[in-house]
UniProtKB/TrEMBL annotation, chain A:
<feature type="transmembrane region" description="Helical">
    <location>
        <begin position="110"/>
        <end position="131"/>
    </location>
</feature>
<keyword id="KW-0472">Membrane</keyword>
<dbReference type="InterPro" id="IPR043428">
    <property type="entry name" value="LivM-like"/>
</dbReference>
<keyword id="KW-0812">Transmembrane</keyword>
<dbReference type="Pfam" id="PF02653">
    <property type="entry name" value="BPD_transp_2"/>
</dbReference>
<feature type="transmembrane region" description="Helical">
    <location>
        <begin position="279"/>
        <end position="300"/>
    </location>
</feature>
<dbReference type="GO" id="GO:0005886">
    <property type="term" value="C:plasma membrane"/>
</dbReference>
<dbReference type="InterPro" id="IPR001851">
    <property type="entry name" value="ABC_transp_permease"/>
</dbReference>
<keyword id="KW-1133">Transmembrane helix</keyword>
UniProtKB/TrEMBL annotation, chain B:
<dbReference type="InterPro" id="IPR003439">
    <property type="entry name" value="ABC_transporter-like_ATP-bd"/>
</dbReference>
<dbReference type="GO" id="GO:0005886">
    <property type="term" value="C:plasma membrane"/>
</dbReference>
<dbReference type="InterPro" id="IPR027417">
    <property type="entry name" value="P-loop_NTPase"/>
</dbReference>
<keyword id="KW-0067">ATP-binding</keyword>
<feature type="domain" description="ABC transporter">
    <location>
        <begin position="5"/>
        <end position="237"/>
    </location>
</feature>
<dbReference type="InterPro" id="IPR051120">
    <property type="entry name" value="ABC_AA/LPS_Transport"/>
</dbReference>
<protein>
    <submittedName>
        <fullName>ATP-binding cassette domain-containing protein</fullName>
    </submittedName>
</protein>
<dbReference type="GO" id="GO:0016887">
    <property type="term" value="F:ATP hydrolysis activity"/>
</dbReference>
<keyword id="KW-0813">Transport</keyword>
Length: 312, 241
């Protein structure tokens, strides 16, 4: 792999490791959350930024990971390791079914269909209140939240595990987009008809992208539930489908490193502005408008356009 | 003679308009076949059916004796057919080398060195070697036409369908294009839709003339050149003029 690319992405991971030792408690906790959510954003970006498919229903994959982990963990006493894998598997299976149906549509219709599936999934969680406890959600017992002997209620361990997951997602995404498979996804985004006439099966590539994207999202959802001990229906709501879109747009669609900065930026934008005024959404809104005006390709996208054309 | 590609009574109607009507075509392996005809004769509709961009209303298409009428376009490409677009269709925001790389990679797989080698070779052949790092969308129109051709060649097809490849090329570029097509003809069968009659006469082994969606005439360049029916179709004179 290209040394510059390795240095940049490895450098970010090293920096996050150093921050573990120096950050004050509050920001330390925030960053752990940000890293897990960045995995969700990376997954979303594989579909939106690289394949050019705008989904408005990714909350269902995040929530499928979360509930696919949380329900067997809570009800069946499944260990954290297996529950985590069950979460990823659930999200992947859901993504396969939704992909098979939703990919019959294109563009705006694809957005609407994914939105509808996601809303149906959210309502299902509420209706199955006997097992999911509906709005209230499931609180996962702290004593059971042990992954490979590591206590997930310990903030230090949480941070390092979040970093580990983030490192895994970042490298997997980097590997994927530089492989022939990832190149074909970009070709489909740029000119699907041309890609088809180069002999690539567009439908199968898109379906694979939906499933991989769903599994990244599910991994993030499962990890989020395990680490912070709560599995709730609010994570399946529509705003949780909009967030990854905003994160990716802000951070830079079609860049591997961008989603992390999108989550970081948005998290602290809301955090800081809500400390200043109750009308914090106004400040957040203005900042978003400014960014779309002056850096329409997002933070990392703008860096790529101006300075680093090699950024993957 | 067993044909590489054949059509049997191939027809396409658009809402009652007969664009292509019962066309029987046989391409012999290794030949350069030109498809000519006035605007609206159904040439692009015919080749779009051959490659699978549009479905025929009726009739059959055979490639190496195998019925491919129902195959999707990508599967036909995998069998060894390649198509270059009449209206240039490149990956405008990707660089020239990646455009060709995508074409070569499907065949060569994940072998990066082989793909890079093939890409460099093909770009050299069409004369775009100096533009490998440029964005395809930044190329001049003529160069984009050459890039289309390069993407066709990188697939090493057995049948190469070229839809008006010289449109927008300068005189000098057309000469280079003719030389290149003669070289390629040693490895592939070529179906050429072309308006430039000097290109057709210089390259084609046989010519098929399409008019109002039907085959009006088929024969050697000299025979077609002399045909009164063809002149009538093109010039609007009576067949006996």
């Amino acid at each position: 792999m290209n040394a510059r690319i390795l240095a940049l992405h490895g450098g970010l991971l090293a920096l996050l490791l150093v921050l573990h030792f120096v950050l004050p408690v509050y920001h330390h906790g925030n960053l752990a959350r940000i890293m897990v959510l960045a995995c969700y954003a990376i997954g979303y970006n594989l579909l939106f930024g690289y394949t050019g498919l705008l989904s408005l229903g990714h909350a269902m994959f995040f929530a499928a990971g979360m509930y696919g982990m949380g329900m067997p963990f809570h009800h069946l006493g499944l260990g954290a390791e297996l529950a985590f894998l069950a979460g990823i598997g659930t999200a992947g299976a859901l993504a396969l079914v939704v992909g098979l149906l939703a990919l019959r549509t294109l563009g705006v219709a694809f957005m609407i269909v994914t939105l509808m599936f996601s809303q149906a999934f959210y309502l299902m969680i509420l209706l199955a209140a006997r097992w999911t406890r509906g709005d209230e959600g499931l609180v996962l017992a702290g004593a059971d939240r042990v992954l490979f002997g590591l206590d997930l209620t310990d903030p230090d361990i949480r941070y390092l595990l979040a970093l580990g997951l983030f490192a895994l997602c970042l490298s997997a995404a980097l590997w994927l987009v530089r492989r022939p498979f990832g190149r074909v996804l970009v070709a489909i985004r740029e000119n699907p008809e041309r890609a088809e006439l180069l002999g690539y099966d567009i439908f199968r590539h898109k379906l694979a992208a939906v499933v991989v994207s769903g599994m990244f999202s599910g991994a993030a959802g499962a990890a989020y539930g395990l680490m912070f001990g709560y599995v709730g229906a609010s994570f399946a709501e529509v705003h949780f489908s909009i967030f990854p879109l905003l994160w990716v747009l802000l951070g830079g669609a079609g860049t591997v490193i961008g989603p992390f900065f999108g989550v970081l930026f948005m998290f602290y934008l809301i955090d800081i502005s809500s400390g200043l005024t109750p009308a914090y959404m106004l400040i957040a809104g203005v900042a978003l408008v400014l960014l779309t005006l002056f850096a329409p390709q997002g933070l990392a996208g703008e860096v790529r356009r101006r300075w680093l054309r090699w950024l993957p | 003679m067993s044909a590489l590609l054949s059509t049997r009574a191939l027809s396409k109607s658009f809402a009652g308009l007969r664009a292509v009507h019962e066309v029987d075509l046989d391409l012999a392996p290794g030949e350069i076949r030109a498809l000519i005809g006035p605007n609206g004769a159904g040439k692009t509709t015919l080749v779009s059916m051959l490659i699978g961009r549009i479905a025929p209303t009726s009739g059959a298409i055979l490639f190496e004796g195998r019925d491919i009428t129902r195959l999707p376009a990508h599967a036909r490409v995998r069998l060894g057919m390649a198509y270059t677009f009449q209206i240039t269709s490149v990956f405008a925001r990707l660089d020239v080398a990646e455009n060709v790389g995508l074409a070569a990679r499907r065949r060569l797989g994940g072998d990066r060195a082989a793909v890079a080698r093939e890409t460099a070779l093909v770009l050299e052949r069409v004369g775009l070697a100096g533009h490998a790092d440029a964005l395809a969308g930044d190329l001049s129109y003529g160069h984009q036409r050459l890039l289309e051709l390069a993407m066709g060649l990188a697939q090493a097809p057995r049948l190469l369908i070229l839809d008006e490849p010289t449109q927008g090329l300068a005189e000098g570029e057309i000469e280079a294009f003719k030389r290149l097509i003669r070289e390629v003809a040693a490895e592939a069968t070529i179906l050429l839709i072309e308006h430039n009659m000097s290109v057709v006469m210089a390259l084609a082994d046989r010519i098929t003339v399409l008019d109002f969606g039907e085959v009006l005439a088929e024969g050697s360049p000299a025979g077609i050149h002399a045909s009164a029916a063809v002149q009538a179709a093109y010039l609007g004179t009576g067949a006996d003029a």
